[in-house]
Amino acid sequence: MLESRTLLSNSNIILSLTPVAPLGSLVYQNSTSQTIAPPGNTDTFALSIAPNETLAAVVQPTSALLKPTLTLIAPSGNSLGTVTATAGKDAVIPLVPSLEGGTYKFVVSGASGSTGAFTINTILNALAEPESYGGPSDDTQATAQPLDSSAIVFAAQDNRMAVLGSIQSAADNADTYSFQLLAGESATAAVAALNGKTVRFALEDDQGNVLALSQTGATNLSAFLNNFVAQRAGTYYVSVTGAVGVTYNLVVTRGADFATQPNNTFPGAQDISATQEAGPNFGGVLGYLSNTAPNFGADYYAVHANAGDNLHFATSTPAGGLNNLYPELLLFDANANLVAIADGNAFDGRNSVIDFSVPGGDAGSWTIEVTSADGSTGDYGLYVTGATGALSPLFVAGTNPPTGALVQPPTAITITFNQPVYGPSLTPGELTVNGVPAKGVSLNNANTVSWTLPAGAIVAGSNVFVLATDPVTGQSVEDVSGAAAINFNSSFTSIQASTGSSNPPPGWPGPFNTNFSVSLAPVAPLGSLVYQSSTSQTIAAPGYTDTFILSIAANETLSAIVHPTSAHFLPTLTLFAPSGRSLGSVTAAAGKDAVIPLASSSEGGTYKFVVSGAGGTTGAFTINTILNALPEPESYGGPSDDTQATAQPLDSSAIVFGAQNRSQDNRMAVLGTIQSAADNADTYSFQLLTG
């Protein structure tokens, strides 16, 4: 978007910067379009900033013949670098530190007398990812882009790094960035998509091991990982993945957390206790105070303190002249009593400081509120030291199978924890079923872990599983801050599956499950990779289930439609992965189709479609199972796809079939119908690269 500017002369423009999401990242930018004409003309873009920030700029020609030259000049008049690109290519200065405050100038001209239009993107306090502008790849650890040079100190030794990047194609499937951590130092990584597309990341060590996965759910971030504590000093990596075309701002804080909203209420205070692990020169959080959603003029943070702790809280206001905030602090004890207020008592008359000793008998979670008495807004750093309390515990938040559930024999036990799990802490022996240890373990997402079970571990009837310290390795499940999981046990009941009979065995006491093997037939045109099956069955009594079993390879797609032939039957359809994890469940109204339109088989093995009657309903049905094609939603009561505006995307149905040097060859497919004269056109969309 074009920013407002004031013309000083025909070729001098003063830049106005706007903040880049997530607010509090300290990243600001400007995008301005101009034209070099006639030959020899220059355009100068002036920007006044504080010392100890960073500058970057990208000149993107919109005229094919312009050979852009970009030069950065310091307030002293010294050149800090110059770069010339070939015709039509971007000229990039990816990062330069501003050692002195004052007015910096970006000068744009056309090399060899070339002329033409261009856009200049000016960036404060973030690296411009070189790969996004024709630079070297950063898709592996070996080619990772270092972030350390982008570090901005905002309190004591607390600092943050940032990069503006993009996933440009399917081949550019991971942007990898490196940074250094001290032993015991905390780090938080947070990423915001700048164009609404999906983005996520993994944290890895220097051996390529996944240490943790990002989570979602914050109102100001696309994905985040709070308070990782390094168990050893070294190089760490963030591997960013996401939808093709996503542009993002990745922020990594060291020694401090990053504001993760909503944290605008006292009960919702953000726990930053893990930032106290690295000693007195580290601790706190980086954030942004606004008077609008989601923080409404106040952010709350909590630390765990012991009696006698000397707590120190101090604000800073980074980002120089771009920041208008005058922060105020309010401190609450473990009983939620307000015990101290500070408003502008720091030496600069703007920031606030509270020092407070925890009285005897008042240990617990202490809360600090960051607000502003005058309603001002802007970036803040909150430096926090002195809290020595224990970290928040890691505990089980949910399981699959759930406690007390009646299920078919699972092949895995899946546990969801309250906090992100530290990947290297996982071992098979931490989970046992009926005293038998699991045979494998995998980190599914930030908080969820699956333990695969050996054959014969599940018995008919009651089964007990226990999460505890691995008796062989002595290892317990840990969160990313180093807190060990609280021991846990649960039980479920397993139903022994029958084979081929649609009736329960004599004397069967309750709900009954029937298994059916699905045989697929190819769908014309042959070679489309599309296969399907159609089977009719009946849910004969309330609580009965029919399970349809299908063994497929990895990286295919599965779909199914349950079509009731009994008017009062409310079909429920659930898809289970080989691990036993549910991939989705849908319940339809009486007599309506239950549809799982498309699920990817990320793992090869046996998948199960389970059909039951919601609300105890019974009746006959037909299940259509489809491999490697999307069933057109409109054909089954879904939204219309008759125009480009309502077109059904096909990209999610893509199956890669190329090999070796053609590994991106793929095909998409849909099974659809023209249902009536009004349904006169079914419209589908897909993406193509240039050429």
Structure in a nutshell:
The chain is mainly β and about 700 residues long. The protein is built from no helices and 58 strands.
- Secondary structure tally, helices: 0
Number of strands: 58
Strand content: over 45%
Give the overall shape: globular
Largest sheet: 6 strands, mixed
Main sheet strand line-up:
1-2-5-10-7-8
Gyration radius, in Å: 29 Å
Helix content: under 10%
Secondary structure category: mainly beta
Q: Topology, please?
A:
Blueprint: E1 6-9, E2 12-14, E3 18-19, E4 28-36, E5 42-49, E6 53-61, E7 68-73, E8 79-84, E9 91-98, E10 102-110, E11 116-124, E12 127-128, E13 145-146, E14 152-155, E15 158-166, E16 175-181, E17 186-193, E18 199-204, E19 210-213, E20 223-229, E21 234-242, E22 247-254, E23 257-258, E24 270-271, E25 284-289, E26 298-305, E27 310-316, E28 328-332, E29 338-343, E30 353-357, E31 364-371, E32 378-385, E33 396-400, E34 406-407, E35 412-417, E36 431-433, E37 436-437, E38 440-443, E39 448-452, E40 461-467, E41 488-494, E42 498-499, E43 513-517, E44 521-522, E45 531-539, E46 545-552, E47 556-564, E48 571-576, E49 582-587, E50 594-601, E51 605-613, E52 619-627, E53 630-631, E54 648-649, E55 655-656, E56 666-667, E57 670-671, E58 684-685
Parallel strand pairs: 2-5, 12-15, 13-16, 23-25, 24-26, 34-41, 42-43, 43-46, 53-57, 54-58
Antiparallel strand pairs: 1-2, 3-4, 4-11, 5-10, 6-9, 6-11, 7-8, 7-10, 14-15, 15-22, 16-21, 17-20, 17-22, 18-19, 18-21, 25-32, 26-31, 27-30, 27-32, 28-29, 28-31, 33-35, 35-39, 36-37, 36-40, 38-39, 40-41, 44-45, 45-52, 46-51, 47-50, 47-52, 48-49, 48-51, 55-56
